[in-house]
Amino acid sequence: IYELPFGTGKPYLNTGIGRWILGDWQIGGILSFLGGTPDSHSINVNTTNVGGANRGRFIADVNLPVSQRTIDRWFNTEAVIPGPEGQLDPAGRNLIWGPGLSNFDFSLSRRFMMPWEGHSLQFRFESFNFTNTPSFGRPNTAFGTANVGQITVAGEPRRIQFALKYVF
Question: Does pTM surpass 0.90?
Fold first, then answer.
């Protein structure tokens, strides 16, 4: 939280109408950048006969270049084929990278002093995901299903709230 340098006892606009309009404001924010998370995959063909998830065999790079990723095709959906019959699948775990996140939360508040000692009124404006940047969920990593490679969920859109608090 940063208190703006305007108002009573501050270096700028400490008298007159400028103090009344711009004085005692505070701004704050949280900026978050997160890389994508690694996800494991499975293939809908049981060649190992041991139960559990089968991973198949990679025949191409599963991760697409960033310029080719969309929510309808986040990774190469033709990169995995069933593994050899009766053998453990050679494909590794956590090789598909999901989408990252960039988010900015913002707040603006002002304190209004009341005529009684120790009493004040605080006004707050808060916005979560202030830039309304989409936050996509993880893609479907089950090869052999209809929506493999698709992202069907997203995080919260921009949320705005106002608050008024009486402090005594």
Answer: no
